[in-house]
Design goal:
alpha+beta, 13-stranded antiparallel β-sheet, 13 strands, 48% strand, disordered C terminus
């Protein structure tokens, strides 16, 4: 399977989730792809893969389309219960979170490999807790967890936050894999205990614990803040862990502009 190295591994019950990355890629017959791979490797970008080993006592839930291949005595199913009402509920949740309506569930004994990507991952273990993450960031989780929708504390905060009205909520005990907007090394982990975090932007992409999130103005004039786009802060209050990706702001500015334009 090529030269891969394991960079993370978590076990819950009989299920192990591992993150691998290729040390180098040889490319194929496409010379243009080879050129891109050369520069990606020079920049430290590596192709990554998620491997899940199922031991029979737990399931795996993934985003639709995430499967690459599987081996062993593994069965795949998709939720179909609840009739029309259940389907409509899943459809609403999918539209709200930017994810698939039905999330495949894998059970049995064997290996499940997810689609390779040059993107980044965050693997989180939660214990009788709730994780809230940006829309579309869910990759997979162990089967004892419940995947749903997190509603905003108020409509205005949802509309003004830049995240939309809803985010993905994952509750229970187990392991969650998220798509991270930046490499793991560039994430900042903020531990809070009855504390307040104010963020100018929407780069706080995941949190675990008991938090309220509201949009507040940093200046005296709310009207001026809304009309100018300045002075609006995401404010988190409570206890738990928040992952922020400060460098994602610079990457967003660089997209389509280049480094020089992004500095202006």
């Amino acid at each position: 399977m090529g030269k891969m190295r394991r960079t993370d591994s978590r076990t819950h019950g009989s299920t192990t989730i591992e993150l691998y990355e290729y040390e180098t890629l040889g490319g194929n017959a496409n010379i243009h792809a080879a050129k891109d791979l050369y520069y990606a490797e020079k920049l430290g970008m590596h192709l990554k893969r998620i491997k899940v080993t199922l031991g029979g006592s737990d399931d795996l839930i993934t985003e639709a389309g995430a499967l690459h291949f599987m081996r062993g005595d593994i069965q795949m199913s998709t939720p179909s219960g609840g009739g029309l009402g259940g389907f409509m509920k899943r459809a609403v949740q999918g539209a709200a979170t930017g994810e698939s309506i039905t999330k495949p569930r894998y059970s049995g004994r064997g290996e499940v490999w997810l689609e390779p990507t040059f993107g980044h991952f965050l693997i989180v273990e939660i214990q009788n807790d709730t994780l809230v993450a940006d829309r579309g960031s869910f990759v997979c989780c162990t089967g004892g967890l419940e995947v749903g929708v997190a509603k905003p504390d108020d409509i205005a905060s949802g509309l003004l936050s830049g995240e939309g009205l809803f985010q993905t909520k994952i509750s229970g005990t187990g392991i969650v894999v998220l798509q991270s907007p930046v490499p793991y090394e560039e994430l900042e982990v903020i531990e809070m205990q009855n504390d307040t975090l104010k963020v100018d932007g929407n780069f706080a992409f995941a949190r675990v614990g008991q938090f309220s999130m509201r949009i507040e103005r940093s200046s005296r004039s709310l009207l001026g803040s809304v009309s100018s786009g300045e002075g609006l802060l995401q404010v988190f209050r409570g206890s738990g862990t928040i992952w922020i990706a400060p460098s994602s702001t610079a990457y967003d500015r660089m997209s389509g502009l280049g480094v020089v334009a992004a500095t202006k």
